[in-house]
Each structure stands twice: as structure tokens, then as C-alpha cells.
Design a protein that fits this description.
The chain is 20% helix and 47% strand. The chain is α+β, with helices and mostly antiparallel strands and 365 residues long. The chain has one domain: Beta Barrel (Porin), CATH 2.40.160.40. The chain has a 14-stranded antiparallel barrel with strand order 1-2-3-4-5-6-7-8-9-10-11-12-13-14.
């Protein structure tokens, strides 16, 4: 079936899942309100919230005022990153919230070479509190390769049209996190697509973060994956984040992948500067490149992009406008093509998008 001919079917899937998650969340909230054990389990809830805090650090715990001051300074980089991740919809935050939560993006991309093209992205993750937040389920419409590699080369914070939207498909899976620490996590995922023939895949991922100073944070992600069609692969991603006193942030993101089907190593590099314009508005400036070692063209794309993003009407609704320019080369020896790009989109958050235990609230919250 032609992927481009089914935007309404895709939107229907997104709407049904969104409504289902909302009803589930509402029912859970009512049960907790009527449950007399809730009051006696407050201490356990506080402990779980503390463990889910993505800005906690086990090396900076203490009871004296100087320990408290050091901890507050140390959280600066993490909380600044969380604020921008909330506003710009970074997929990394979807996992760190450890909550029933999702996002749906509907947009239009204009490319000088390809014209106008609709864009639909949807991700939802359901956590099971009774399993001590170790078990979760997920559903989404995305590129399976991008999900497996965990590189986030696409989405609201990456340049469109480098990766073909026709590769997007509906995915469903189950995840298990046996190790969850304040500075590192280990999780396993099994999933499949909704197409025929079914393509199963599996992934093991280790995530670690390290606070370099009160304003600098680095995150590492190492992913081992398998899919029936393409075989085994190994991917690594690094994020370095620096928070400025003004509330702005600089982020460098680099990713690499080797697999049974790559000639060398696929790589992606992006430098972003995020600038606050207010409680509910921000601007991102991005430059980057991607390519493959061992390929005839080492650097396939250079790009520059500006992204304006703000909340509209509700705290869970966002507007995005993103003009950009890409310089592409497909064959060695050929001059690069300069391709203007413009993107317009609206993104909706649903479920527990604030996330219990999250240190930084949704912008404007």
C-alpha cells in the first residue's frame, strides 16, 4: 500500500491511541483517589518519584546547607536541558519521564526539489507502575531504522528530507528495564511493524550520564540491535550540553552506526544553540552534517536551520516554524546542490506529559 496515500488512516490511529491512553489515565487517577491505601503509601510514592527524577545525582546527596547548595548548582545543566527538551519535543525525554505519555505531530514540509509533503509523527509510551516502572509498552509511527539506532536524526529537532518519510511505518513493542539508576539505565525492547510481512526487531540499550560541572552534562547511549531483514548492528550516541547563566543552552549531538549492511559507519553530527524568548517561546539555531564512511561521498549533507517554537492556546499544544538550507551531494565529483527547506507543524502532547518526579516543568507551567 502506498504510504503517501494514507494520511487519514494514520491520523485515525493516532487519535484512537490518544483517546485510549487518556481514558486509561483518567481511570487510573479515579481509582487512586478512591483507594484508602493511597495515604499509607505516600512514602513509597515519594521514593519512586525521587528515583524517577532525571536530574538527580547520587554523588551530591547530603544534609548540610553546603551540600544542598552544591546540588542546586549541579542541577542547572540538567534542568535547562529538560526545559528545552519539553518545548522542542526531544524524544529522549519521552523515556526519562517514566510516565504514560505521548506526542503527535502534524506538519507540512516544503523542499525546493520535492515540493510540499505532509508529515506525521506519533509516539506513545505506557509505563506500568505495578511493575516498579520496569515494564513499558510503546506504539508509534516512525522510521524503524531511526528507532532502532536511537539516534534521533529526525523529528522536530532535526532537518527533514534527509530521511525519506515514505519509510515511516506503525511500530509496536514492549520494553523492560532491569537496571534503573540515577546515572545509568539498561533496558531491552522487542517490537514489530504493522505491515506485511511482519518485520520483528530487538534492541538492548545502555544509557549513562555524567555531570562534568554545574553547567555541563554529557550523555552516552550504546545500542545493540537486530532486525530480520538487515541483521545485527551497533549504534552509539553522545550528547554534550552546556547551560548558560542567561538560560540558553548549547548542545552537540553525535551518532554513529555499524551493521551487517553498512559499507563503513553511518554518522550524524549536529550543533544546536537554544535561546529562550520567554516562558513559552524559544529559538534554536542548528548546523550539522551526515554521511557514511567507506561510501563514495563521505559527507552527503551539510545543513543549517532555524526553529521557532512556542506554546499556543494550551500548555500541551505547540507551533513550530523552521526555515533551513541543505547542501547535498549524491555522487563524487558533482557540485553540491543548495536546497531551501521550510517546515511548519503543530505538535500535541497527551497523557502525563509533565511526568511525576520531573525536575523541570513544562514551559510556562
Amino acid at each position: 500500500m502506498d504510504q503517501r496515500a494514507s494520511p487519514f488512516a494514520s491520523l485515525a490511529w493516532a487519535a484512537l491511541v490518544s483517546v485510549g491512553l487518556s481514558i486509561s489515565a483518567a481511570g487510573t487517577a479515579q481509582e487512586l483517589e478512591d483507594d484508602p491505601r493511597v495515604g499509607t503509601e505516600a512514602e513509597d510514592a515519594d521514593t519512586a518519584a525521587e528515583a524517577a527524577d532525571p536530574c538527580a545525582s547520587e554523588y551530591l546527596e547530603g544534609r548540610s546547607w553546603i551540600d544542598w547548595l552544591n546540588l542546586r548548582l549541579h542541577r542547572t545543566a540538567c534542568e535547562t536541558a529538560l526545559w528545552f527538551d519539553h518545548l522542542f519535543g526531544d524524544y529522549r525525554l519521552d523515556e526519562e519521564l517514566e510516565a504514560t505519555y505521548g506526542r503527535a505531530l502534524v506538519g507540512v514540509v516544503w523542499d525546493e526539489h520535492y515540493g510540499f509533503e505532509e508529515e506525521l509523527s506519533f509516539r506513545a509510551r505506557l509505563h506500568f507502575p505495578n511493575m516498579e516502572r520496569r515494564l513499558n509498552a510503546f506504539i508509534g509511527r516512525d522510521d524503524r531504522e531511526d528507532v532502532l539506532e536511537d539516534a534521533q536524526r529526525r523529528g522536530t529537532t532535526s532537518l527533514p528530507r534527509m530521511f525519506d518519510p515514505e519509510d515511516d511505518e506503525w511500530l509496536v513493542g514492549l520494553g523492560y528495564r532491569p537496571i534503573s539508576g540515577r546515572n545509568g539505565d539498561l533496558d531491552f525492547d522487542l517490537g514489530m511493524n504493522f505491515n506485511f510481512p511482519v518485520e520483528p526487531w530487538a534492541r538492548a540499550r545502555y544509557k549513562h550520564r555524567s555531570f562534568l560541572s554545574e553547567t555541563d552534562l554529557v550523555r552516552f547511549r550504546h545500542t545493540l540491535f537486530w532486525e530480520r531483514e538487515d541483521g545485527w548492528g551497533l549504534a552509539t550516541r553522545i550528547d554534550y550540553e552546556h547551560a548558560f547563566p542567561t538560560g540558553s543552552m548549547l548542545r552537540w549531538r553525535g551518532a554513529g552506526k555499524i551493521s551487517d549492511i553498512t559499507r563503513g559507519a553511518d554518522w550524524f553530527s549536529e550543533l544546536s544553540y537554544y535561546h529562550r524568548l520567554g516562558r513559552r517561546r524559544a529559538l534554536a539555531h542548528q548546523v550539522g552534517a551526515n554521511g557514511e564512511t567507506g561510501a563514495p561521498v563521505l559527507v552527503e549533507n551539510y545543513f543549517v536551520r532555524f526553529i521557532y517554537r512556542q506554546q499556543i492556546l494550551r500548555e500541551w499544544l505547540f507551533l513550530e516554524i523552521g526555515p533551513g538550507m541543505a547542501w547535498r551531494r549524491e555522487e563524487p565529483g558533482q557540485p553540491r546542490d543548495s536546497v531551501p527547506i521550510l517546515r511548519f507543524g503543530v505538535e500535541m502532547l497527551f497523557g502525563d506529559y509533565r511526568g511525576q518526579g520531573t525536575a523541570a516543568p513544562v514551559p510556562g507551567g
